[in-house]
Amino acid sequence: MKKIIFLAAITLMLFSCKTSSITEKKLDRNSQVALKGNWVISSVTYPGSEYIKVNSFQLADSKCFEGSTWKFVSNNNKGNMALTKYDCPAFSSPITWFINANGEFILKILDAGEKARKVRDGYVLHIANQTESSFQLIDKINVGGKATDVVYQFQRAN
Fold it and tell me: How many CB atoms lie within 10 A of CB 86?
């Protein structure tokens, strides 16, 4: 009888524990559908901290992202991005992404042929000022113990 009670207690504890994620899984489908298509980053700014150097997405200097091209496919949350700026490293990669109900833009940069579920590292940015022709992704970084925004301004490509 003691074994049954002990097993029941262990089972109850296991099923009552819930793993939590740092990101909300419920999707904001309207915001996602609005991003469908081709985009270009027109500017990268750091409001209040214009004299810092930022390595964006562990790929290149943030200013190298100006002029980069991004394609978002909303029905399967895939796409691709490419850095094309002169004097910057050339880089192109498939991506997976989604926007959750909290207004967070979750991004994973993949290697060619790599499955998103195998990639453990990703980026959580905030989406803001979304219109039909533009939107911003805002990354929070720590500069000298102070939270600073990095604002990526996207414009719809023709």
Answer: 6
What average pLDDT is seen over the chain? Answer: 79
Q: How many CB atoms are located within 10 Å of the residue 16 CB?
A: 7
- Is 8 a domain residue? no
3-class DSSP assignment, residue 114:
coil
DSSP 100: B
Q: In the 8-state DSSP scheme, what is residue 64?
A: G
Cα within 13 Å of Cα(2), Cβ side:
0
Residue 55: CB partners within 8 Å, gap ≥ 6? 61, 62
**Residues forming a β-bridge with 71:** 38, 80
CA distance 30 to 28: 6
Mark out the alpha helices in the chain (DSSP H runs). Answer: 2-16, 29-34
- Return the pLDDT at 17: 42
For residue 90, pLDDT beyond 70: yes
Residue 23: predicted pLDDT: 52
CA 20/CA 8 separation, integer angstroms = 24
Give yes or no for a contact between 65 and 91, defined as CB atoms under 8 angstroms apart.
no
Range of the domain at 84: 24-156
What CATH number does residue 119 fall under? 2.40.128.280
